[in-house]
Design goal:
The structure is a homodimer of 345-residue chains. With 345 residues, the first copy, chain A, is an alpha+beta fold. The first copy, chain A, has 10 helices and 16 strands. Chain A has 3 domains: 116 residues, Rossmann fold, CATH 3.40.50.20; 135 residues, D-amino Acid Aminotransferase, Chain A, domain 1 (2-Layer Sandwich), CATH 3.30.470.20; 57 residues, Dna Ligase, domain 1 (2-Layer Sandwich).
Chain lengths: 345, 345
Amino acid sequence: MKLNILFGGASFEHEISIVSAITLKGKLTGFDLGFIFCDQDHTFYLIDPSKMKARTFSKGEHKKMPKLQLSKGGFVQKTLFSSIKHSAKILNLIHGADGEDGTMAALLEFFSLKYIGPRMDASVFSYDKRYTKYLCDAKKIKTLQYEVLTSNEHKNLTIPYPVIIKPARLGSSIGVSIVKEESELDYALDVAFEFDSAVIAEPFISGVKEYNLAGFMAKDKIYFSIIEEPQKNEFLDFEKKYMDFSRSEQVLKATITDKLVAKLKTNFEKVYKGLFEGSLIRCDFFVIDNEVYLNEINPIPGSMANYLFEDFASSIEMLASSLPHAKRPQVSYEYIHSISKAKGK
Amino acid sequence: MKLNILFGGASFEHEISIVSAITLKGKLTGFDLGFIFCDQDHTFYLIDPSKMKARTFSKGEHKKMPKLQLSKGGFVQKTLFSSIKHSAKILNLIHGADGEDGTMAALLEFFSLKYIGPRMDASVFSYDKRYTKYLCDAKKIKTLQYEVLTSNEHKNLTIPYPVIIKPARLGSSIGVSIVKEESELDYALDVAFEFDSAVIAEPFISGVKEYNLAGFMAKDKIYFSIIEEPQKNEFLDFEKKYMDFSRSEQVLKATITDKLVAKLKTNFEKVYKGLFEGSLIRCDFFVIDNEVYLNEINPIPGSMANYLFEDFASSIEMLASSLPHAKRPQVSYEYIHSISKAKGK
């Protein structure tokens, strides 16, 4: 199967997207893979697969490779006398802004390319942590209590300490702090507001049980990954997460009861159905007093959470064969015709 | 001021977008206006202002006009030996799909064009009536009770009759029915599901008081239009609405108490702030027992609701001079550098 991996993007997660793409190259060896890089200035490049190394990008060597232009039905590569259209299905692997905020989804839809990845509305609900809360409230999925801050002026939080402070729209732990007491709050807010104009505060529960579950829908059925209990060091900082994006070894199943497995899957389904079709997502849950709380939706998890799937390549193949596609209305100009007629012209 | 009006789109509201653009041409005579048409197949054309007539499009005459390509910083028109870049600010006047669903916002952001219109997240929350409910619940704005249907199998509604049935993602009354009793429900659902895979049911309140209020933010202040009590015939059907999009005569203020005016404005602000910056929106409210309920957010109202503004041209000029713009992070490759270093290569 031909698949073009789209990665990079103008985002704080640009570099981890490169790492993710390199990891997937190793995991999807049975595919006929192409690599399309979106530079931070929004120029697309076709990357020679043999040059898929981190240093190609940090040294700017990609700039010598063919430029691509997004056009109807594909990425077009102009050659001296003609042009080549790269129209295979896309795997959207741009983490953070551009990829997970809905931008790339909109571009791919507009230019009629089929793609693996969250659609626009799914992206908006998962990219901004405030909107994830709205979604969960509407779908009756439990989440931790929260407070939204839109300026770093000192204020009294309604949530008891310790709290965790996160920029509303960034993943990968960027700008996140744990605040143990009020005296540390101002600094944490300054850090978070460096990255976003909206910040979210939640209770920080030391030692809380965490479980990650990924999955995707193909042919009207949800396929789940194994459930992992991720290793914890307070929380994963950016460099840890960075290494995390290059994970490719399958992990062990969490040892939890069937009942809890079922609960986690039910919550995953509530999140996924009717919104995330076309994408492989990872939901990160907390379990407190046997109740499941959604912590975060990763609509494009690092290296697509390959390490959670027993047969990752087959999963991607199934998903790629079952992508939703938007219906477009046919414009008949019947109203303009009828009005012109009524006017007698 | 130079302003390019972007209209058309692959949507059920394609034709009313044309009518809207023709109306704005008459209302914004002081501007240096350009007209960029998005055909239903997603080709862009530069329309000769003297040809801005409905029949230009229904007869396909626009196809003889110059094609444009969306590129970094503008719409590019290729000429025989060179190219012209149209990089003026855009007024997004594509109603419905493409324009109001966030697609055009994403494209314009990605290619760094400044534009009047809702941003991607604002679009998602106003385009889909289900998500408008989520937003209102989170922001403590009252709305009518509702039920979401995702298949037209007969079912018992929890809402008492009469009900109004609407496709979740269409404006301009397309596919909308009033259902007076259960025997009429199946037909109404069949109609609505013609247009969307999700349908929303709400109580239909005959003779309910309705008020429309438009506004926009410029330089951190919200500027309100007058409040209109729209004329009612049960509800506006598509042909009525169609005519509505060509309105250009200023309407009379609704005769309501200052207290109600203040309540409507407070609700408008709750909707607008932190989400709709950059756009001129119209909120349609119901008033029941002195309580204000949000019915609908129109993020790109027909002919931009010019008829509600005392000085529409100045309003557009203020808004155009105060557009938000996205910050882009600079990628430094510091993580890749530090990892390469740690690995000793």
